[in-house]
Amino acid sequence: MVEIYVDADACPVKDEIERVATRHGLKTYLVCDGGIRPSQNPLLQLVVVSQGTDAADDWIAEHIGKADICVTNDIPLADRCLKQGAFALKPNGEIYTDDSIGMALATREIMQGLRETGEVTGGPRPFSKADRSKFLDRMEVTVQAAKKI
Q1: How far apart (Å, rounded) are the C-alpha atoms in residues 142 and 87?
Q2: 57 pLDDT tier (thresholds 50, 70, 90)
Q3: Which pLDDT value is given to residue 101?
Q4: Do 74 and 92 contact (CB within 8 A), yes or no?
Q5: What is the tally of structural domains in the chain?
Q6: 122 lies in some domain
Q7: Residue 2: its pLDDT value, please?
Q8: What is the reported pLDDT for 102?
Q9: Residue 122's domain is classified under what CATH number?
Q10: Domain that holds residue 47
Q11: How big, in percent rounded to 5, are the helix, strand and coil portions of the chain?
Q12: What phi, psi does 32 have (nearest 5°)?
């Protein structure tokens, strides 16, 4: 059975994930270090981990399995999930793949270096309605693909 794992602390699409999970009857774990109100939906389980840099990431990576789905902006976590045979996608609908994760990790390192030197001071563009719509579409496609495995 496919399960969904959400790196939930700053995830802007929790409601959309709940809708998709409910439609497909999928157990979903919202993993965070606190501050998220639990849902009354029995398919959603709030997992509160100890506060720490990678505590939520570590919990997800330890529990996710083949054909499960991870929703995260965290590129190293996405890499860990892909290595376990899971699917990974960003809240804006972009899908991490085995072919794209290496470039994403390299770009992350370059951007981190540029931020540390002060050459780049801005972050990502604001989350939009189009991102939310793209996420819903890609999440549905990903669930369908995961169910076939």
Answers
A1: 7
A2: very high
A3: 84
A4: no
A5: 1
A6: yes
A7: 98
A8: 78
A9: 3.40.50
A10: 4-143
A11: 45, 15, 40
A12: -155, 175
